[in-house]
Design brief:
Elements (H helix, E strand, L loop, with lengths): L15 H15 L2 H10 L2 H18 L6 H4 L5
């Protein structure tokens, strides 16, 4: 019988490649590439600002000295 486990990622050390891949997946979970292009082309200034702030926050996480996975998932659009 399989039991649902909560995995503690608080002590996981990620390679820069892992960090960048997780960041990209997190961004594209909320804003697919197609949606990003659409927002850039025809989105309102408010929609663009919201998307840019989210992407910038994710990038700041990826560029931090010791990014923790749990912190990334706290970043929401």
């Amino acid at each position: 019988m399989m039991v649902n486990e909560i995995i503690d990622y608080s002590n996981v050390i990620l390679s820069q490649r892992d960090v960048n891949e997780r960041c990209e997946r997190h961004i594209t979970h909320y804003y697919t590439v197609g949606k990003q292009l659409t927002v850039e082309r025809i989105g309102t200034d408010e929609e663009k600002s919201k998307m840019h702030a989210f992407i910038d926050a994710c990038r700041a996480w990826a560029n931090s000295e010791r990014p923790k996975v749990e912190d990334l998932y706290q970043i929401l659009p």
